[in-house]
Amino acid sequence: MEILFVSHCVPNPPNKGEKIRAFHAFNALCRDFRVHLACFARNAEEIDDAHRLAGQCASVYVQPISTAALPAAAVRFALGGCLNFAFYSSRPLHQYVDDLARRVPLRAGVAFSVVMAPYVPPAIPCILDMLDVDSEKWYQYAQARWPAFPYRLEAKRLRREEIRWARSSVQTIFTTRNEEKLFQNFAPDIPTSYMENGVDMEYFDPAQTPTVEDLARRQYVTFIGTMDYWPNIDAARWFAMRVLPELRQKNPQMEFFIVGRKPHKSVLALAGRPGVHVTGAVADIRGYLKHARAVVTPLRIARGIQNKVLEALAMGKPVFGSSAVCRTFGSDIPTGIIACDSAQAYVQHLSAGDWMADSPAVRQALLPRFDWSTNLQVLRGAVADAIAMKSPG
User: Fold this and answer.
1) What pairs with residue 131 in β-bridges?
2) N or C: which end of the chain has fewer CB within 10 A?
3) Mean pLDDT, to the nearest integer, of 124-145?
4) Contact, 278 vs 314, CB < 8 A?
5) Helix 148-167 vs helix 177-186: angle between axes, to the nearest 10 degrees?
6) Closest alpha carbon to 25 in 42, 46, 47, 3
7) Shortest CA distance to 289 belongs to which of 307, 305, 269?
């Protein structure tokens, strides 16, 4: 049976945020169906990454996109449109999918993120993996960023689109029960479910991670993430300026590594502060995790599943996280996460010397809750149900 998978990102490789979930979802569906992939790519490297998937699916179509699309999206926003939907609007991609649907008997479509839902032809049952309630993030931006008005306006417009496209889908899936409950608060009549992410326990295994001698000699904590994303920028800057100086007063050897691609200029500027290192993209983050004393995630805005937390725990590392990060896990916070509500709390816990976690216990506690093979049954079942709806008779 043939299905459509439309994604706002290339589902390969699993090295960043939503791409991790897209990768595992896409590969699981390729094992069950003939999948036709249509996705956006931000550069030539991502285009190549997409075409490498051709051997495991029925077809691949890649639509280039870049920040050059932002001015046109901003104009549409000024005229009353939704900025997110305007940015991901592509006539060539629409035309390709429409032509594909005329040539191929597509039985169902999976839209990976709400902005991709319009690309699933109306005659095809759609499963929408909304991931997070992204409109809520924009409401949070309105509280934390200036000027608040455009963020609040985008939040309202995006929420209307979330409701609209979830209502037109046969099933809408979220990354956590918390995100699902939030959506149900303002759209209680729409069928929903949730599917938590997993973590690759074989890859993120300290016993299988090579030693990095330079890192092994250091005393440091680390923050890992894509560093042009505002919540990550905000978190890294806050920790470097509010927490690290006090930590270094107690232990002058303590350092802070900010690890992740595309560091914003305000993040790069932190490298001039004592003890702060900004790496940019690295070939293998596991070394930075293996030798760290701990991982910190002081985000003020955190939605859905934090892959950086799961990967750190899989490496047996304690994670000192904000209340916002802890809330993403619901009432059942995984073993190894220590909540910190203030700069003083981070300093107190990280300076205490008694916070080194039991690595085997931290790793073991992740399973079976964060097992990809188990969790992906939600998506596979939703697609099978959608196909059954479209079957003759």
Assistant:
1) 174
2) C
3) 97
4) no
5) 90
6) 3
7) 307
H helices of the chain, in order, are 17-32, 44-51, 70-78, 83-87, 91-103, 134-144, 148-167, 177-186, 213-216, 230-238, 244-250, 265-268, 286-290, 307-314, 323-327, 343-352, 359-364, 372-375, 377-390
* C-beta atoms surrounding 250 within 10 Å: 11
Q: Which residue type does 192 have?
A: T
CA distances from 12 to 23, 220, 303, 328 (A): 6, 31, 22, 25
Amino acid sitting at position 177: R
d(CA 173, CA 25): 12
Residue 238: per-residue pLDDT? 98
Residues composing the chain: 393
Dihedral sign, Cα of residue 265, residue 267, residue 270, residue 271: negative
pLDDT (tens digit per residue) in 299-338: 999 999 899 999 999 999 999 999 999 999 999 999 999 9
Q: Could you tell me if 211 and 217 are in contact, meaning their C-beta atoms sit under 8 angstroms apart?
A: no
Tokens representing 153? Answer: 């306006």
Bridge partner list, 174: 131, 194
Cα–Cα distance measured from residue 299 to residue 377, given in angstroms and rounded to the nearest whole number: 30
CA torsion angle 29 31 34 39 (round to 10): 40
Record the pTM.
0.95
Tokens of 290: 């293996």
- In a 13 Å sphere around the CA of 312, the CA atoms on its Cβ side amount to 28
DSSP character string of 10-24: ---SS-SHHHHHHHH
State the Cα–Cα distance between residues 7 and 3, nearest whole angstrom: 13
CA distance 389 to 393: 9
DSSP state, 296? E
- What pLDDT, in 10s, does the model give residues 38-92? 999 999 999 999 999 999 999 999 999 999 999 999 999 999 999 999 999 999 9
